[in-house]
Specification:
The chain has one domain: Cytochrome P450 (Cytochrome p450), CATH 1.10.630. 48% of the residues lie in helices and 12% in strands. The strands form four sheets. Strands 1-2-3-9-6-4 form a six-stranded mixed β-sheet. Strands 5-13-10 form a three-stranded antiparallel β-sheet. A two-stranded antiparallel sheet has the order 7-8. The two termini are 24 Å apart.
Length: 458
C-alpha cells in the first residue's frame, strides 16, 4: 500500500468569501492578496460550488462547479473575457501573446500558431529535450551528496530546455543575460499592485514598477534581436538543421512584434509553470517513499535507451500519474479569471455584466465532494477506471475551452522526460528545516528553495 502523504497548506482565511467585505476587512484582504492570495480562502470554500461576493462595489463570483465552469469557459466563452486584474499583471510583459491577446488579435494568432503545436511537431522536439535532461542528470551525479535548492535547479533546467527548443541554443542569444533577466522578472512579477486590486484606471501611474519595465524592455530587445537575425539566416532546409519553434513561428505568417510577443509567452508559460511543477513533484516524491520507489522501479524496468522519448509516457504510466497528481495538488495556474461582458445566468444565479468570474484550481482540485482524500498525494487516482471517472472540467491543470493551454502536450512530454532522465540516475531527498508551503503568484510557487540532497542511485 502506498504511504499516503498530505502536504502542508497555507494558513486560512482572512475572508469568508460570501456576501460583502466589511470596510474593516479591506486592509487585511489587501495584505493577503499581495502576500499570498491563497490565504483568502477558508476551509468552507473547498465545499461550496458557487460563492458571489462584492468588493469595492465590484461583483465577483467564485465558481467551483464543473458544469458552471464549462458554461463560462466553453459554452459562453464569448461572453467571458480576460479579467482586468490578470491582464494588469501579464500584459506589460506578454502584450498580445496568446495568453493575453483578445478578440480578432487572439483569433489570428491562435490560428497561425496552432500548426506549430501539432503532435508531430511537438514530438520532434523530444530528442532535444532528452539531451538537455541527460546533461543535467550528469551534472547532478557530479554533486553526489550535496544539498541544492531544487526550485532554482528546475528553473534553470526548464529554461535550458526552452532555449534549446525555441532557439536551438542560438549563439545570438546571450544566455547568461537572458537567464538573469528572466530570474529578475520572476522575482518582481506576479504581485498585484494595490491600484489594480482596487480596480483603478490603468492611466494612473503605478509607483515602483520602473524596474520591471526595464527588465521587460531588455528581454524584448534580446528576443526580437534573435528573431530579426534568424529571418536573415539560411532556412533549416538550406542549412540542414532541424527547425526550432522560432523557425516555425517565423513561417506562420506573424509579424515581428507578434513573433516576439508569442516567444515571450512560450517562455513565461512554458518555463515558469513547468519548473514549479517539477519542483513540487520532486518534493512530493521525497515525502512519499512508496510512490517514489514504484516510480524508480518503473523507470528502471522500461527500455528507454533505444526508444523515442516522445513515446516514454506510454511506457511510464505511473510516472505520468505522479505528474498529474502533483498538478492536482499544486496547479501551475492556480487561478482562471474571466469577466462577463453581458448579463448571464450561471448555475441558476444571475450574473450581471462586468462580474469577475474566478475559478481557483487550488479549490477545484481539492473539492470535498469530487475528490476522495482531496488533500492526500495519491497518484493511483489517475490510473485505469479511477482516472476515467474524474468528472469533466473538475481537473484543469491546463485550463479549458478555446483558450486551453496550447503547449499542454509539450509540457507533459517534457515533464515525463525530465523525471525519467533524472530519477534513473539520481535521487532527491528533502533536506530542509520545514516543508515548503505554496504561495500564489503568476504560478504556484514554494515559499522556500525546496532544499534537497542529491544522491547518485546504484
Amino acid at each position: 500500500m502506498n504511504q499516503v502523504f498530505q502536504p502542508p497548506k497555507p494558513p486560512y482565511a482572512v475572508y469568508s468569501g460570501v456576501g460583502k467585505l466589511r470596510p474593516s476587512d479591506y486592509w487585511t484582504y489587501f495584505r493577503a492578496m499581495r502576500r499570498n492570495p491563497l490565504e483568502v480562502w477558508g476551509e468552507h470554500h473547498f465545499s461550496i460550488r458557487l460563492a458571489p461576493f462584492r468588493f469595492l462595489g465590484r461583483s465577483s463570483l467564485i465558481v467551483n462547479d464543473p458544469d458552471a465552469i464549462h458554461h463560462c469557459f466553453v459554452t459562453r466563452s464569448d461572453n467571458f473575457t480576460m479579467n482586468p486584474l490578470r491582464q494588469a499583471v501579464l500584459k506589460p510583459f506578454l502584450r498580445d501573446g496568446l495568453l493575453t491577446a483578445e478578440g480578432e488579435t487572439w483569433s489570428k494568432a491562435r490560428k497561425a500558431v496552432s500548426p506549430v503545436f501539432t503532435p508531430r511537431k511537438v514530438n520532434a522536439f523530444a530528442p532535444q529535450i532528452r539531451q538537455v535532461c541527460e546533461d543535467a542528470a550528469a551534472a547532478f551525479e557530479a554533486i553526489d551528496g550535496r544539498t541544492i535548492p531544487v526550485s532554482d535547479a528546475m528553473v534553470d533546467l526548464t529554461l535550458d530546455v526552452l532555449i534549446e527548443t525555441l532557439f536551438s541554443g542560438d549563439e545570438a542569444l546571450d544566455k547568461a543575460r537572458f537567464t538573469a533577466g528572466i530570474h529578475q522578472l520572476l522575482e518582481i512579477s506576479g504581485i498585484p499592485h494595490p491600484f489594480d486590486l482596487a480596480h483603478l484606471p490603468g492611466w494612473i501611474p503605478r509607483i515602483g514598477q520602473g524596474k520591471s519595465r526595464r527588465v521587460i524592455a531588455d528581454l524584448r530587445r534580446q528576443v526580437s534581436g534573435v528573431a530579426a537575425q534568424r529571418r536573415k539566416a539560411p532556412s533549416p532546409e538550406e542549412s540542414g538543421r532541424a527547425p526550432d519553434f522560432l523557425d516555425l513561428l517565423l513561417g506562420a505568417g506573424l509579424d515581428d512584434t507578434a513573433v516576439t510577443d508569442n516567444l515571450l509567452t512560450f517562455l513565461a508559460a512554458g518555463h515558469e509553470t513547468t519548473a514549479r511543477s517539477l519542483a513540487w513533484t520532486l518534493y512530493l516524491l521525497s515525502r512519499a517513499p512508496d510512490v517514489r520507489d514504484r516510480l524508480e522501479a518503473e523507470i528502471d524496468a522500461a527500455a528507454l535507451d533505444d526508444t523515442d522519448p516522445a513515446t516514454w509516457s506510454q511506457a511510464l504510466p505511473w510516472t505520468e500519474a505522479v505528474i498529474k497528481e502533483s498538478l492536482r495538488l499544486y496547479p501551475s495556474a492556480p487561478m482562471l479569471a474571466r469577466t462577463s461582458r453581458e448579463w448571464d445566468i450561471v448555475a441558476g444565479l444571475p450574473v450581471p455584466a462586468r462580474t469577475d468570474v474566478l475559478v481557483s484550481t487550488w479549490l477545484l482540485h481539492r473539492q470535498r465532494d469530487i475528490w476522495a482524500e482531496p488533500d492526500s498525494f495519491r497518484p493511483e487516482r489517475f490510473l485505469g477506471e479511477a482516472g476515467k471517472a474524474i468528472p469533466r472540467d473538475a481537473y484543469l491543470p491546463f485550463g479549458l475551452g478555446p483558450r486551453v493551454c496550447i503547449g499542454a502536450r509539450f509540457a507533459m512530454m517534457e515533464m515525463v522526460i525530465v523525471l525519467a532522465c533524472l530519477l534513473r540516475r539520481v535521487r532527491f531527498e528533502f533536506d530542509g528545516p520545514r516543508d515548503p508551503r505554496p504561495v500564489m503568484r503568476i504560478t504556484l510557487q514554494p515559499d522556500n528553495e525546496v532544499p534537497m540532497r542529491v544522491s547518485r542511485r546504484g
